[in-house]
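Bit of a strange request maybe. I'm writing a small parser for structure token strings and I need a real example to test against, not something I typed by hand. Could someone generate the tokens for this chain?
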Amino acid sequence: MCNLYRLEKAPDAIIGLIRAMGTTVGFPEGVPNFQPRDIRISERAPILRAAFAEPGAVELVERRWSWPGPGGKPVFNFRGEGRRFAPDERCVILSDGFYEFTAPADPKAKRKDRWLFTWPGENPDHSWFGIAGIVRADPHVGEAFTMLTCPPGADVVPYHNRQVVLLSPAQCLGWLDPARAAEEFVGPLPEGTLAVARA
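Reply from user aminoacidic:
Good idea to test on real output. This should exercise your parser:
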């Protein structure tokens, strides 16, 4: 399961691309001051969510990745298939890469091999993508998000038996549209969509 992802593209650049698609973006808590980096469980990171006060608009806020589960372990991934998600709990986690880990090729190595997955797309505007997520309020950590997962596509199968639900820039807005059903988006990508490299 994905326990580390990357956002190197500045959020303001992503906002510019979203606005170019004709969508209004609001900042109810101010413009986040976010440095490009790898994002780890329990850290705060930028997400998009629907701005229900203005139909069709979205908001950019920062929230914690994961909330504590019943046994205390962080809920950072959440099975997506076969479930319904209310429009007001859906969010888009901004990303330009995510990592998976495998047993080291060198049996003497102490650390697992790390693999970076990116979605090159067919044009420069596809230098970022979304990960489908949900937001929930927790009495201990406040509002937090988790990533939805699904069975792996062919690009991910050699590295893990699950994968995060990935959204193209256009699909990000669809995922936040209250008129769209969650099952439209929860599934793997076609073979050859993702690029993978040892990180």
